[in-house]
Amino acid sequence: MTAIKNDQVPTETILALRDALELLSGKWKFCILHHLHTKGEMRFKDLQEKAQGISPKVLSNELQALEDNLFITRTVNKTKPITVSYQLTAHAQESYPVLTSLIEFGLKHRAKIKNK
Questions:
Q1: Report field, pTM of the whole predicted structure over 0.85
Q2: Rounded to an integer, what distance in angstroms lies between the CA atom of residue 10 and that of residue 109?
Q3: Does residue 89 form part of some domain?
């Protein structure tokens, strides 16, 4: 792969990268997407249990951001008490190769650091 100098990078490439990073920034969004991808539809409480350490407020904010960006759908279930469930959209499925690549890189990086 040939390195591209900063002054040669097209503006739309930089804007696209910024959009992607802004959308998926933070330590929880990829975790949420991964759980929804592997488990399918999940309730709020189940997501909170799987994403160990996330507060309800942060989870709510992250889910709202993912919904605003068309990555998840939110369904209010007519149960007693009312429950809310979340599911990935087809658009979000397109991001899964990125998540998989990051997981693979993270595993290799951990192994490399561990074996210094």
A1: no
A2: 30
A3: yes
Q: Residue 69: which domain range?
A: 28-115
Number of domains in the chain: 1
Rounded to whole angstroms, the Cα distance separating 36 from 86 reads: 8
Report if residue 1 sits inside a domain: no
Angle (deg, nearest 10), helices 29-39 and 56-68? 80
* Token pair of 40 as six digits: 């399918």
> What does each of the 116 residues of the chain score in pLDDT, given as a tens digit?
455 565 666 788 888 888 888 888 888 998 999 999 999 999 999 999 999 999 999 999 999 999 999 999 999 999 899 999 999 999 998 888 888 898 899 999 999 998 87
CATH number at residue 50: 1.10.10.10
Which 8-state DSSP code applies to residue 28? S
